[in-house]
């Protein structure tokens, strides 16, 4: 375990992704370790956004049908590119909506409760918005969430076991919906194995990929996952509030959208203005309203970078960065009560390292004062995410040195141990 700065510099010299750092706007002297919450802006994203602005300026309404990238089919063409990142067929992915809206769309489309099979299984560690969506969706169906929503329990408060998940797959369960990566601990679930377990019981499976897309390669189609939803503003660097995405396996494309809207129409018939809905073929049918193009355009530029780098290279560097980070944490600040709650195995962790500490909120504030951007999650988690495109090994080394200074000099004690309004 070499934790010297010389080793970090050597690793950076060998890094085949090192030139991508020049593609991003990096605040001067700042070490940005929060790309798992909001990715930084790339010059490519800026360019594709400006290109769309120019098309509006120059063409007005004709931008819908004219120019290099007509708006009418912009999301569909972009979706075919995103599909390759998640291991799906081009017609199985749609860049649209947000995570919560897309959860409602997928459940309203695929959840067909019967007296014998009306339960949706989630987990007790999931991000609150997913739980809110499931609860409200069940209420709209006249179902009581206290009865029809069950949560997989965690043994340690940070991770889930396959055994605990399988135990919840009883005969009355219709849908299992879990995160691919648990947002606090960074645990990566085995999507293929979980899907196999659920399908053996006749249960549909969906995953929230918010903390894995752009960090972990997926094979959604081959793994037979029924549906997935995600955002693009974390590892995919599409900008704040960037348009989200959904995947629905082609075997379900016969399903009418539960939430039908104009942009789910067959493109050739959309402007017929008929009151008879003719659904699009593929995932495009599950769009609802007119796409927000200004929130979509930056993703096009970001996807270019993924196409050039390749997901295998992104994942390989991510694993190397997070391994080096945890080695440094152990060597430099291991005596300061930090508990690494992220699973050790490469196949069981996503793109960030989560440290539990009783003084987590004030340590994060001290890190920000030291020009490091971490992420705090209540009640006691510090999340650190070195990003393959714009984090170097020397950045990771320097970040841990600043953390060590904060702990040795106890500068964190000058801050309150309460989170800010936005953590």
UniProtKB/TrEMBL annotation:
One of its GO terms (biological process) is NAD+ biosynthetic process. The keyword Hydrolase applies. Gene3D superfamilies: Aspartate Aminotransferase, domain 1, Type I PLP-dependent aspartate aminotransferase-like (Major domain). Pathway: Amino-acid degradation; L-kynurenine degradation; L-alanine and anthranilate from L-kynurenine: step 1/1; Cofactor biosynthesis; NAD(+) biosynthesis; quinolinate from L-kynurenine: step 2/3. Residues 76-217 form the Aminotransferase class I/classII large domain. It catalyses: L-kynurenine + H2O = anthranilate + L-alanine + H(+); 3-hydroxy-L-kynurenine + H2O = 3-hydroxyanthranilate + L-alanine + H(+). One of its GO terms (cellular component) is cytoplasm. Its EC number is 3.7.1.3. Pyridoxal 5'-phosphate binds at residues 99-100, 127-130, 208, 211, 233, 262, 290. The keyword Hydrolase applies. It is an enzyme of class 3 (hydrolase). It holds the Pfam family Aminotran_1_2. Transmembrane segments: none annotated. The modification N6-(pyridoxal phosphate)lysine is found at residue 234. GO terms for molecular function: kynureninase activity; pyridoxal phosphate binding. Its cofactor is pyridoxal 5'-phosphate. Keywords: Hydrolase, Pyridine nucleotide biosynthesis, Pyridoxal phosphate. InterPro entries: Aminotransferase_I/II_large (IPR004839), Kynureninase (IPR010111), PyrdxlP-dep_Trfase (IPR015424), PyrdxlP-dep_Trfase_major (IPR015421), PyrdxlP-dep_Trfase_small (IPR015422). SUPFAM superfamilies: PLP-dependent transferases. Catalyzes the cleavage of L-kynurenine (L-Kyn) and L-3-hydroxykynurenine (L-3OHKyn) into anthranilic acid (AA) and 3-hydroxyanthranilic acid (3-OHAA), respectively. Belongs to the kynureninase family. Homodimer. This is Kynureninase. It comes from Paenisporosarcina quisquiliarum. The gene is kynU.
């Amino acid at each position: 375990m070499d934790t010297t700065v010389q080793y970090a510099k050597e690793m950076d010299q060998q890094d085949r992704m090192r030139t991508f750092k020049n593609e991003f706007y990096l605040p001067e002297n700042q070490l940005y370790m929060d790309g798992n919450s909001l990715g930084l802006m790339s010059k490519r994203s800026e360019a594709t956004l400006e290109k769309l602005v120019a098309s509006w300026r120059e063409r007005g309404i004709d931008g819908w049908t004219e120019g290099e990238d007509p708006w009418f089919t912009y999301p569909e063409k972009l979706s075919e590119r995103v599909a390759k990142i998640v291991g799906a067929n081009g017609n199985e992915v749609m860049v649209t909506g947000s995570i919560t809206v897309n959860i409602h769309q997928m459940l309203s489309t695929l959840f067909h409760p019967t007296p014998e099979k009306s339960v949706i299984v989630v987990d007790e560690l999931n991000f609150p918005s997913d739980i809110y969506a499931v609860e409200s969706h069940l209420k709209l169906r006249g179902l009581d969430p206290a009865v029809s929503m069950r949560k997989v329990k965690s043994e340690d408060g940070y991770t889930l076991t396959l055994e605990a998940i399988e135990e919840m797959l009883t005969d009355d369960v219709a849908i299992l919906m879990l995160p691919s990566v648990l947002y606090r601990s960074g645990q990566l679930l085995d999507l293929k194995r979980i899907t196999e377990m659920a399908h053996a019981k006749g249960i549909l499976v969906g995953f929230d990929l918010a903390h894995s897309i752009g960090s972990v390669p997926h094979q959604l189609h081959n793994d037979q996952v029924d549906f997935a939803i995600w955002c693009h503003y974390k590892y995919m660097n599409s900008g704040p509030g960037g348009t989200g995405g959904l995947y629905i396996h082609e075997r379900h494309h016969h399903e009418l959208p539960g939430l039908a809207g104009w942009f789910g129409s067959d493109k050739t018939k959309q402007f017929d203005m008929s009151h008879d809905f003719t659904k699009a073929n593929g995932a495009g049918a599950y769009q609802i309203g007119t796409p927000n193009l200004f929130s979509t355009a930056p993703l096009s530029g970001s996807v270019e970078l993924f196409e050039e780098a390749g997901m295998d290279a992104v994942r390989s560097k991510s694993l190397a960065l997070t391994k080096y980070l945890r080695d440094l944490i152990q060597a430099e600040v291991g005596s300061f009560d930090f508990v690494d709650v992220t699973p050790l195995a490469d196949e069981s962790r996503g793109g960030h390292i989560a440290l539990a500490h009783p003084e987590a909120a004030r340590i994060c504030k001290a890190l920000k004062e030291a020009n490091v951007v971490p992420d705090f999650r209540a009640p006691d988690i510090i999340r650190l995410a070195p990003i393959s495109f714009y984090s170097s090994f020397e950045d990771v080394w320097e970040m841990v040195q600043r953390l060590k200074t904060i702990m040795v000099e106890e500068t964190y004690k000058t801050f309150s141990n309460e989170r800010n309004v936005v953590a």
